[in-house]
Write a structure and sequence with these properties.
mainly alpha, 56% helix, binds adenosine-5'-triphosphate, 198 residues, globular, 10 helices
């Protein structure tokens, strides 16, 4: 399943890229990194317990950045900050803010016109976010949590189960998930919705 406990992935050394901006000295392997990130995310989640989130606050660049910051600030210096260079995935770094603004405008439109069901709106948010890929890392986990916060705090619905995998750990290219994201790239959200609820 490519989870952190896989003995092969656990020994994967961090690449130079991955070490950039690491706050914790002496971290050498992917598994150690995953665990520190997971703890950080747990802390972020605890902060949301019993907290209301207003739609007007949720649909802002500030909320998106702040959530990433809360999830990763103990591990990464650049937590909560958009990329300043291009990656092989996502939009060119200088188009991130515009992309986010367009996405938030679209979501407001979908909500006002009831264009899609609530869970499809949350899934479209997740997919558009991960396609923009605003942050150097953590975009998968951040976008899944954004969708879950929308479900729970905005729509008062159950959160997604994301293939019953641990939300807090990276999915590390889980095949069914990546396949579903690719269908969503082609405008077909059925598989991603199904995966999110499986
Ligand atoms: N074609 C693709 N191939 C791989 N990943 C993709 C693709 N399209 C979108 N993605 C998303 O990008 C994510 C990886 O981005 P990033 O490493 O920033 O996030 P993460 O939180 O560390 O990873 P994960 O989603 O595995 O938890 C993938 O997991 C997936 O959510
Ligand atoms: Mg990653």
């Amino acid at each position: 399943m490519g989870l952190a406990l896989n003995p092969i992935s656990s020994q994967t050394p961090l690449t130079v890229d991955e070490q950039e901006g690491l706050k914790i000295k002496g971290l050498a392997t992917r598994e150690e990194l995953d665990q520190f990130e997971q703890q950080n995310i747990e802390t972020a989640l605890a902060g949301f317990l019993g907290q209301d989130v207003l739609l007007q606050d949720f649909l802002t660049e500030k909320f998106i950045k702040n959530l990433h910051f809360k999830m990763f600030n103990q591990v990464w210096k650049w937590a909560g900050e958009f990329r300043l260079s291009d990656k092989n995935i996502g939009v060119s770094w200088n188009l991130i803010s515009t992309g986010i603004r367009d996405l938030l405008d679209d979501i407001r439109y979908w909500l006002n016109h009831e264009t899609f069901s609530q869970d499809e709106i949350a899934i479209r948010l997740k997919h558009r976010l991960v396609s923009i890929h605003p942050f150097p890392n953590g975009n998968g986990r951040h976008s899944r949590l954004m969708a879950d916060i929308m479900m729970e705090k905005i729509f008062k619905q159950a959160i997604f189960s994301w293939g019953a995998l641990n939300l807090h750990s990276p999915l590390n290219g889980q095949k069914e998930y990546i396949k579903a994201l690719k269908s969503a790239d082609d405008g077909d959200y059925v598989s991603l919705l199904k995966f999110a609820k499986s």
